[in-house]
């Protein structure tokens, strides 16, 4: 029997003891009426006192227990009960429950704070709607997108906010939309939510136009930096030579060798102007690359023929399995010629160049490996007009990557791990085999 129940039973028996003793005495002893009534009165008084004592012992701990439960119900987890009373086990359990609830509330508040900070730091606009499509949560980016105070937005319907169309249709899509705070192209994603057994909608809006504009701005900065460098390299000597020729022409009388100086100066101006023209022509080549005209290309035959176009160093062709790709052979040849030319330039005069191909999962790799010093430590290898070679155009790798990406492929240039040198990898989608089609 539990301790509390045992103490209640013993206390009840003790409270009834005076009445039992008086009844027993009256039954066994022939007392007079006066003495008999005196005993009955004393028994009644003693019983009442013991009942009051038992009442306090039972009710007051229950009051304490009720107070602790009331505090928990109102979210006050700081109260604790004394564990040594008649309800010690129950008080212990309630104290443990209060401590656990207090710990969970602390975790919840920390998680809510972290969530709030995360939402505030996001550039994406986040909206949460309830099952009636009324706004219940938004972050600062969403507030800026709607261009309104937070208290004017909460509780309003999606239709009132102009977002009803975004809660319908596909769950992920790109669209052009005009918000009160911004217009442009947006990536819109939504998903269902449930809270307290009720449905809701999470809506996330990303301004992809701003990201693209930022990337475009950076691309223009890189392009203008390279163009400015190349143009200045041509215009600086032209300007200097023009000033020299103007000074020479102002002399009276002209020197005896003025014709020779004039011819040399004009030749230099013409040479630099021609170099600038070639540079701009290379840029036009990048801008006007036509779309590929793919057809079946047998790599085992085509790459062997391609390797024979390089005469400065022998290109070793490491034969692989017979593979066929769908590609524009003219454009793909131009890309690989650029990779082979770079490999040979790096390997001269005593190095070697190897060309091989292989299948890797769902794509086909064409690898050009050289014994040169390896690629330079820079992230600008594929930036247009960037070059580390004297007299280089800086469009070879850029053009090769543009051709590969037009074929849904790509190019990487990394340092070899087994020896000095570079490894250029051009990959293309794998053409389905006959067994795959079956």
TrEMBL record:
Gene3D superfamilies hit by this protein: Histidine kinase-like ATPase, C-terminal domain (3.30.565.10), PAS domain (3.30.450.20)
Domain PAS: 111-157
Domain Histidine kinase, chain residue ranges per copy: 226-432
Molecular function GO terms recorded: protein histidine kinase activity
This protein's UniProt keywords: Kinase, Membrane, Transferase, Transmembrane, Transmembrane helix
Pfam family, one: HATPase_c
Protein name: histidine kinase
Organism of derivation: Dyella monticola
Source taxonomy: Bacteria, Pseudomonadati, Pseudomonadota, Gammaproteobacteria, Lysobacterales
